[in-house]
Amino acid sequence: MAQLRKSVLVLMQLTILFVCAVLNLADAQGLKVGYYEKTCPSVEKIVKQATAKFISRAPTLAAPLLRMHFHDCFVRGCDGSILLNSTKDNLAEKDAPPNLSLRGYQVIDGVKTAVESKCPGVVSCADILALVARDAVSMLKGPVPYWKVPLGRRDGRVSIMLDTLTNLPPPFFDISQLKSSFASKGLNVKDLVVLSGGHTIGTSHCSSFTGRLYNFTGKGDMDPSLDSEYAVNLKKKCKPSDVNTLVEMDPGSFKTFDEEYYTLVAKRRGLFNSDAALLDDKETRDYVKLQATTQGYTFFKDFGVSMVKMGNIGVLTGAAGEIRKSCAFVN
């Protein structure tokens, strides 16, 4: 009996150590909550207030700001490289086809200006982008309390358009491709299905999904996994060659961060092939059904956890990179 108690005690200790290791993963990479406590203690308050000024006037900016953070982290890591302008000698990430529809750079610039006025040369653009993405989501009735964002990222000096083509998962990926893409960034299958929930806000151009409506296999057919009634409504909005029309990703709720996305996916009404693909894997399918049937019981908490993990991808810390004076230009 004594040996059994000893074994249980050891197991509990190992479990605690494992949990602590997971919770401190960001610290191990040089990031930590409260990183600017001494150098810019009011940074989160400044970012929140500055972000609110933009989102209160234009709530639809929240979705592209969240997407901007995702696109930044998946290409060269979360180093603010998505924010750099192209030069005469180099086409940057923001001019790559997947990023041409991004909006909200003026929000990042505005927030950066507000932060610089209080703490010049201290806070990176990469950290500001991570905070703005969190705050913008919260302003659309997203997770409260907010997830804590570990900080301490440095800004990268390199931004190459072609990098986006090999790193960003496109909307036509199937489940195997999606799992591989996320795994290459250190994200697991649960992170994939949780972060896909970000599609609960925002819009998409017709060109990102019309292949499912008109030419799914190259024979002028429709994706059989798409709900037929939903497809009829989409065809009314989008003709085969339409590249300008915007469609809500979460119809009727695209300005509210909620669990409705999973209800739609469960009904085969996910807009993209990558949304529908979540029903092709047991783990992702079970998560979709869980959130759809429990009104997103764990979604907000899970989203915060996965956002922190995503925000750790390939970060520059210590003496690496720089703290940009202006987010669109290297120093």
Automatic annotation (TrEMBL):
One of its GO terms (biological process) is response to oxidative stress. The active site is at H71 (proton acceptor). The keyword Oxidoreductase applies. It catalyses: 2 a phenolic donor + H2O2 = 2 a phenolic radical donor + 2 H2O. Its EC number is 1.11.1.7. Binds 1 heme b (iron(II)-protoporphyrin IX) group per subunit. Binds 2 calcium ions per subunit. The record marks R67 as: Transition state stabilizer. Its main location: secreted. Ca(2+) 2 binds at T200, D250, D258. InterPro entries: Haem_peroxidase, Haem_peroxidase_sf, Peroxidase_pln, Peroxidases_AS, Peroxidases_heam-ligand_BS, Secretory_peroxidase. The keyword rRNA processing does not apply. It comes from the Eukaryota. Keywords: Calcium, Disulfide bond, Glycoprotein, Heme, Hydrogen peroxide, Iron, Metal-binding, Oxidoreductase, Peroxidase, Secreted, Signal. It is found in: Secreted. Substrate binds at P169. Removal of H(2)O(2), oxidation of toxic reductants, biosynthesis and degradation of lignin, suberization, auxin catabolism, response to environmental stresses such as wounding, pathogen attack and oxidative stress. These functions might be dependent on each isozyme/isoform in each plant tissue. This is Peroxidase. It comes from Daucus carota subsp. sativus (Carrot).
